Amino acid sequence: MTVYLGHKADSFRRSFLDLAAIGTITDCVPCSARTGLLSSTDWKRLQETKKPGLRALIAEAGFADRILKVGDVSHQMGPRLNSASRMDETQDALDLLLTKDETEAYRLARRLHELNLQRREDTKLFIEEAMAQVAQQDIAEARCLVVSSSGWPAGMVGFGGRQDCGAHPSPLYRHFPR
Known about the structure:
mainly alpha
């Protein structure tokens, strides 16, 4: 396929190593021979990316003037990209990754930062509301806890984890009626 598009397979793959690095780290994929990613050279490609969107994301996260660490990606850059889907604004993240325009890239990186801040606030409210609902249930006999709100974004499914029900060992089902 890459030959058909006019690219050599190796150079085509290398052109996406910066994105692969973010995806691998953000999704907690173990680095191994099987993934074939993140040698020191590959990691350097993220730091030196030519993609305006990634450069803007790095700058917005405050890492433009220093060497990136894995934690910078996993705790700052990844959540900014993921917040778009959590907040039902996926187009902003895609546009950031695809844009060739520096000004647009910085605008989108700022937008993702704002979405991430909003996601954090919404998560706190979500957890507070879910814990209040759990507190109203008979948890001594419950085999499954259910929390629900039509006000929660669908992207919040899976968010909050064990915080939702504290130390209770029962599974927690989150329902997001539309």
